Amino acid sequence: MKLSQIHLNYKWWLGISGIIVLVISLVYTNYLATQLAEGERDKIDLISKAYEALNQDSYNLDADLTFQAYVIEKNRTIPLILADEDDNILLAINFRKDRDTDMPYLERELEKIKSEGNEPFVIETQENRQYIYYKHSLVLQLLTYFPIIQIVLVGTFVILGFLGFSAARKAEQNRVWAGMAKETAHQLGTPINAIVGWVEVLQSITDESDLERREIIEEMRKDINRLELVADRFSKVGSSPELKLMDLEEVLPDIIDYMRRRAPRQIQFKSKTSDDRPFNTKINRHLFEWVIENLLRNSLDSMEEKGLILISLYEKNDRIVLDISDTGKGIPPGKSKEVFRPGYSTKKRGWGLGLSLARRIIEEYHQGKIYVKDSKINEGTTMTIELPKS
User: pTM, whole model, 2 decimals?
Assistant: First the structure.
């Protein structure tokens, strides 16, 4: 399984686990709120019976009303309003000390309670009928809003955790890549120096008239120069490369010619440049050429020894834009962003690091952008690089 697919599966399982935990928490919170609401209604029912008993036995001097008074006194959390048949407020408790006697406020609260459809408890007295209206306690109200708070808190935690995990993983990847690149450059240095020495020895023992051998030695020198360039590129990964102001129209021909000489004969290279000149931007030439080489090599691999590669250079919104289009296999739908992830590769022997390193070089070192501009299966792909104009 591809490394990128493993990361994707991990994210899915992490997301599903988070949803399960959240659902269980919400169901349990809802259960607690329901039980508490039923308990409050039972408590108000008991209080209404206590009021009723007080009213009916108020004329009986021998009646013991201690229990009823105790029940009423113990309600210190549930706001209630006692009103007559004409909605005249007779008593209000547990709203707030300064609000329990504020009639305009209590009348508004009574209308709000009635509009919510809560049936009042009826108290039969000797003179008339009275009603107890109540609203849920502050604890129950907070518990009702708790699911929303849970969603916000869990969502925030998951997002921050994901961002932190991604940042830590990216930093670790950067350290690994930088260390691997520098170690590769270091390991290449010893054999390159040795080969340079052997080439000098071969040249010193080769007769001036032996043109064939001297031509071979010259080609070896070119390959050594190429190896030195590769080692220099690796040594710059993970460091802060020096950027110089250059005209891309002068930089691109060298790398295009280099790739053309190594491409199948039936693959054509074409360049198209707009009239906006020069195309000056700050780049590190070695690293930038590495990116272009990667893109061109991917195009060559996708065309199976026949096709067209078009390199277009132009300006757009104060940015220098470079399009590299091919007539290859194209990128599958939905994979345009995934191709830049470490480990993603469509090649059987690919490591999936080429485009990932290309994005690092363009976006982190050159403050630009690289993305898939367009791609269609069996028609081709256009990769785009945008760089700030200098």
Answer: 0.53
